[in-house]
Design a protein that fits this description.
Elements lengths: L4 H8 L5 E5 L3 H14 L3 E5 L1 H7 L1 H14 L5 E8 L1 H10 L4 E4 L6 H16 L4 E6 L3 E4 L2 E3 L9 H11 L3 E4 L4 E2 L12 H10 L5 E3 L7 H9 L13 H8 L3 E6 L1 H17 L7 H22 L11
Length: 313
């Protein structure tokens, strides 16, 4: 069942958070919907411009629509992640997405406001939820690359003016997380003092945490033991910090890197251990099972397990 993030965030604010998971493939869609239905947990399906370029937007939305029929008890929203004007307007016009993100965070404050406000106007005409971003995250995700020296925290002094001028529905903030498998290289972690001040200035307004993957050290080790060469110095967002952030108004946690690492580990180990096999169905099934188990754990961590009933009328 398709539900607006606005309804999700009204119910979850300060109590639990919604997992927002990037998908590229059929296996990821199956695993996410299967886990969501099994856990009775609401979730967001996130599609990035890179995913749309890879699989085509029609293919991705068709997979999501099919999954909603295969798993009729799943409660979800369909969200465009990190879109520009072209991506956002196309998603709005498709009548399939009920949530879009306009990412103008690399622009000046005034330009960010201008670009965001224009998308909000078009989206709200069709009752589409809009996420904006203020502040810049470092790291790499899809075709996004931001050097550490260019990364900057969200300034709490700007959030009220930004939300007022843009009328956006949620706000992604830069509080120390980063994109990709390069998180917290300096060991700083989430800056809760910034989150606290943002919440004080925007009470009951939903905050989004990008770069919310954990980057499990064991997964990195297993990948490298199977022939990979990933950096072992990176660490993601700790479960304790994720859980703690919910009380500060974080309603949506973006997850992408962890499911990619899982894909890499499953496939590397499979072909290492069974080099005589070549059928993609076998490792594909293993990945769906591993991804489902991962999402069930994530729903528990976010406190979302059992909460989908709140949106079924």
């Amino acid at each position: 069942m398709l539900v607006s993030p606005k309804e999700f965030f009204k119910k979850c604010y300060g109590k639990y958070a919604i997992a927002a998971v990037n998908v590229f493939t059929m296996e990821q869609v199956h695993a996410l919907f299967r886990a969501g239905e099994k856990a009775n947990a609401p979730f967001l399906v996130q599609i990035t411009p890179a995913a749309r370029n890879y699989a085509h937007s029609l293919m991705l939305s068709a997979m999501v629509q099919a999954a909603s029929k295969i798993y009729p008890k799943a409660v979800f929203a369909l969200h465009l992640d990190h879109g520009n004007e072209e991506h956002a307007l196309d998603a709005i016009a498709s009548n399939k997405y009920n949530s879009v993100m306009i990412d103008a965070s690399h622009d000046s404050f005034d330009k960010n406001v201008e670009r965001t406000r224009a998308i909000v106007k078009k989206a709200h005409e069709k009752n589409v939820f809009v996420e904006a971003e203020l502040g810049v995250l470092s790291g790499v995700e899809d075709d996004i690359s931001v050097d550490e020296k260019e990364a900057r925290y969200t300034k709490p002094s700007e959030v009220e003016k930004f939300v007022q001028k843009t009328q956006c529905d949620s706000l992604a903030v830069a509080v120390g997380t980063s994109h990709g498998a390069y998180k917290f290289s300096g060991g700083e972690g989430i800056q809760f003092n910034i989150l606290e001040e943002i919440q004080r200035r925007l009470p009951n307004f939903p905050i989004v945490l990008h770069g919310g993957s954990a980057v499990n050290e064991e997964e990195i080790g297993r990948i490298n033991h199977s022939g990979g060469a990933l950096s072992e110095g990176a660490s993601g967002v700790s479960p304790k910090e994720i859980a703690k952030s919910i009380a500060y108004g974080v309603c949506k946690i973006n997850i992408a890197t962890d499911t990619r690492l899982l894909w890499t580990r499953v496939h590397r180990e499979f072909f290492r251990d069974t080099p005589e096999l070549f059928d993609p169905i076998v490792p594909g099934q293993k990945y769906m099972e591993a991804n489902e188990a991962f999402m069930l754990e994530k729903f528990d961590l976010l406190g979302a397990t059992g909460k989908a009933n709140q949106f079924i009328h």
